[in-house]
């Protein structure tokens, strides 16, 4: 079934912005990109999902190794005690995690990346618990070669914290025929997205599947 994802602004990266635009998804592939009215008129039977803000390619998370192997992502039931942000360093060492608790952290870390519009992850997969969780998530794995160093404040779930613009933060531009990996952010434009950050993500589509929806 065809699905049309419409947004006030589509930013393909590598192509011109499309105000009042849309991306058509057929299975796990991008079938068309353009003005919503034109795409919808040609596909009257397509399902339509309307989103606020800007639709962009999915983001690339360079700090996957740190976020999954050297950070603990607290369970929501632990929020009163541990907070909601990833724990590392001395805070991580004090937890004395067993295998089951560590596996839960890895799964939650991946889920929280999806909530930040991440569709590609730089990470090494030499630990079985990480490899299994990443493969099941469907995230594209990219090489860690060339990844920037860890930020002074530590790794962050928001890829924009590394300081790159949108073109430098996405995994690949939106093009017809490519895998349908993209995200939608509840902001007005690219400048607002960089200022607000990926926490404004309201939807993430991974391999054609809606894997995160905030509303």
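Sequence proposed for the structure above (215 residues):
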């Amino acid at each position: 079934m065809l699905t049309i994802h419409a947004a006030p602004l589509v930013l393909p990266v590598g192509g011109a912005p499309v105000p009042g635009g849309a991306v058509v998804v057929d299975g796990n592939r991008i079938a068309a990109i353009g003005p919503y009215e034109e795409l919808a008129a040609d596909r009257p039977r397509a399902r339509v999902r309307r989103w606020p803000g800007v639709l962009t390619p999915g983001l690339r998370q360079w700090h996957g190794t740190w976020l999954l192997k050297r950070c603990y992502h607290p369970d929501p039931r632990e929020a009163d005690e541990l907070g909601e942000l990833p724990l590392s360093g001395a805070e991580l060492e004090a937890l004395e995690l067993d295998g089951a608790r560590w596996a839960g952290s890895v799964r939650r870390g991946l889920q929280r990346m999806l909530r930040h519009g991440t569709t590609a992850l730089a990470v090494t997969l030499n630990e079985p618990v990480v490899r299994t969780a990443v493969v099941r998530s469907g995230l594209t794995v990219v090489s860690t070669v060339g990844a920037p160093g860890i930020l002074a404040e530590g790794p962050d779930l928001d890829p924009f914290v590394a300081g790159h613009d949108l073109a430098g933060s996405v995994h690949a531009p939106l093009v017809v025929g490519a895998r349908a990996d993209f995200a939608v952010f509840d902001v007005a434009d690219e400048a607002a997205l960089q200022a607000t950050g990926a926490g404004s993500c309201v939807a993430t589509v991974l391999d054609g599947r809606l894997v995160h929806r905030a509303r």
